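Q: How would the structure tokens look for this protein?
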Amino acid sequence: MKKIRTMMVWAVLLGSLAMEKMDGDELFAEVVKRVNALQDCRVKFKLYSSWGKDQAVHSLAFEEAEYLREPRLYYQRRTRVEANYKEQGGSGFQEIYRGSEDISELLMPGALRALGLIKLFPEDPKGFGMNGGNLKTMAPWDMVNGFERMARLGKVSVTSISREGKSLLVFDIVQNPGTYYFSGVNRGRLFVDAKTLLPLRFEWWYPGQSEAECWLEYQEFAADTGLKPEDIAFEGFKSPFSLIKSPSLQEIEPYLKPLKRTRLPDPAPDFQAVLERFRKAVDGLDSYRADLAMSFRYGRLRLYREGRFAYHKNP
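A: Here is the predicted structure in token form.
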């Protein structure tokens, strides 16, 4: 037994020495490899989100989550929310992402629970947070892989710090000018445990900001706990009823057919140029009315809308 313990100590020491010789890119690659080797995890975390000048709109959510890699099942529940605006997804809000269907299921808190189960395509705008986060990408391996994509378009540097008696590695990932991760984010910071290489905190930064616009910090992180698909379920909700009616296949089929496109003889004008020409065309008018039809396609989302718009310069 003593011999085995001695061998384990030497293995840790040799691993530490090898890590000390790695540069930022190599260390970060090891973190990506380590996190992607996880089969599941149970976590508790704080999620801060903000928007606008000086982070005028902001919220802090305390959440519990269970993430299973295969089959891909993610569950999150908010236990507390502090926000300076009316947040419908407050304490008690729950959501499950089912990878086999690529569908998100939402269970609202309070009186909105009467709506029952709400199903959304993950690409639906209502499924995103104010900073672009989506349950589909909230598992630690998904977020680490997102940072890895940032690293391909920029540079990675690493520093070692000590916090509350624990050694941490802090990776600073800055994308090349003009490239962005999502919603204008061009910088990420990742804090990991120097021994386990497991993530402790993620930060997302916008250009020119002195503070992170969004961050996620784990309070508890249990890896490879033996989580099973049957463990992923809503708390306090057994009936599958829903007052939100989803359209039938027959109803959406016309929108799923490819759009007929006509190639113009000349290259299409720049979108901003079209808007500028329109602005100049109506600049001399005192009033006008327009009927507008809009067709929208994104992922599996389909929208067709007709509307009437009226404008009068004075008053």
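Residues 1-15 have pLDDT under 50 and may be disordered.

Residues 249-312 form one domain.

Upvote if useful.
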